[in-house]
Amino acid sequence: MTAILIAEQVLNGLQFGVMLFLMAAGLTLIFGVMGLINLAHGSLYMVGAFAAATIAGATGSFLLALAAALISAALAGALVELVVIRRLYDRDHLDQVLATFALILIFSEGTRWLFGSFPLYLDIPAWLSGPVMLPGGIQYPLYRLALIVLGLLIALGLWLLISHTRIGVQIRAGENDREMIGALGVNISRLYTLVFALGAGLAGLAGALVGAIQSVQVGMGEPVLILAFVVIVIGGIGSIKGALIGALLVGLADTLGGIFLPELLKLFTDPAKATATGSAFASMAIYILMAVVLVWRPTGLFGARV
Amino acid sequence: MSVKTLLAAAGLVALAAGAQAQVKVGMITTLSGGGASLGIDTRDGFMLAIGMAGRDDIDVIVEDDQQKPDIAVQISDKMIQSDKVDVLTGIVWSNLAMAVVPSATAQGLFYLSTNAAPAQLAGAGCNPNHFSVSYQNDNLHEAAGAYTKSAGYTKPFILAPNYPAGHDSLTGFKRFYDGELAGEIYTELGQTDYAAEIAQIRASGADSVFFFLPGGMGISFLKQYAESGVELPLVGPAFSFDQNILQAVGDAAVGVKNTSTWSKDLDNDANAAFVSAYEEKYGRLPSIYAAQGYDTANLLLSAMDKADISDPDAFRTALEDADFDSVRGDFTFASNHHPIQDIYVREVIKEGDIYTNKITDTAMEDRDNAYVGECSM
After folding, report:
1. Residues of B with CB below 8 A from A112's CB?
2. I need a surface site. Which of A98, A218, B112, B357 has the fewest CB within 10 A?
3. What is the domain-level CATH number for residue B284?
4. Which candidate in A107, A213, A226 is best for mutational testing of the B interface (most B CBs within 10 A)?
5. pTM of the full predicted structure?
6. Does ipTM top 0.90?
């Protein structure tokens, strides 16, 4: 286990973390502002990836594909908000879960109907492919490096949006007291649609970015959704800062846990058994992290104190 | 008794006799989610064989297990209890097979495996009513181990997902590759990001990589591996290079060596007929799952020609005969009802716009499996 390997794994953890952040940011905003549990967020991630694969296939341009992912997921999000979600704000969380779960099934089957069950092809553009040499002799894929930078830029942009713009003021006010900002003359239903579309667009962008290094297929969003929920619970529901810190923590815990736990167990037992049990423990690492955080701070790291 | 009732009674008897000749097959396979393409190919291959035989004495019920063991068990219970099927088939994943097959065969049903064949069902847990038409899970990995050794690699890095077939995979590889390993890891089932594993491979000083990552897992791994700058040769079983995966991976897969019991360029009449009929009916090239589904249906039909399903002992003997033209060429069953067959080395090539495989070598001839001795039947 060399320093280079550890440094590379930390980068991997960061990259995984910032992608989770793009998912978690939308999820936490939607929950914070509207009090809505949106299980269909993973479907919007999938919509983004499929839109990107289609546009990349038709035009050959990766940047156009990313734009298409962002726009189509945002549009799908806005549409879903107008048609379905709008009726759920006053309902119980259980109704919301049920309705958004139905949306997952509709999106999945709809996508299967349009594109078939076979994975689609979406590749990294030539100008972002291949490895680069980082200081210290670390060889690292350029694309993953670009993901880290882009993810952090988006985090910065979101922070500016929330803390320095009028919309940001409205969003923060909406988190604190929905009825009051409505009474102050803010068009609350437009704000809700906007927030939902913003969250959806970020999820779609994440889907396209990740789709280029993984496979674009039906059901790709749900495993990420579960992790994104873990992230917002750790970070504190409704907090963008919490989502960022939570996402990086989960990314690092998951990546580093997968490396070090088997190595640690090898000290006590034979290698084959150590790798099997170690990887089983590693998949629990983030949930253990979540449990520890919740014991220490029941509302998450940056959640509102109750 | 009036003439009318007599006629009605005769009609009923005729109906009952007709129903008896009818064989009812329950196919449980994965038709949705990330693993759907495997199940769809299995189903399409199976139904193609039945369509080509033009048989109407067989009913097939197909249900989607969503790649979840609990759903697979529910479906099998329903198929056994209310649909009253005679034969179950179709399961792609070994963890689902472990949940369904032992209880189905214990209830006297026949189970014909189109794919999953975990070690547990080949050795001590073997059952006279369980037949694997595909292989034994270890087989392709054993061949990969044998190939790695014969190709002169001395320090492979090996990885597989942490589930029954993953354990079978690495065990099988090590059975025929007895040299030093650069590293051995189990990844999570369904994992999509392999950056951490690739970093370990880079740091390990390996001279080659053996990986078993079926379905979407393999696509992600291959794409990320191509980006990483690690340029060690890859070896794997056919699952990571099946016809559907290759199109999503693209150039990253070209040149990779993989082991398979079947390939579309395998030279025999049954295979040529299968490949052209499949392409014509479904508009795409068949995968190994389609080939295995096709063979399974033909095995079943051959047994139906020889014996009646209502006589399980005769039917079992008819299945054991394996008197059908396999698309894999020579095909017989070992005493634990798993195939004895040749295993080939294939290389991924680009044919026009399509990525596909071509056979370059034979890795093992007439390979049975390591568990024959442990099975007491």
Report:
1. 32, 36
2. A98
3. 3.40.50.2300
4. A213
5. 0.82
6. no
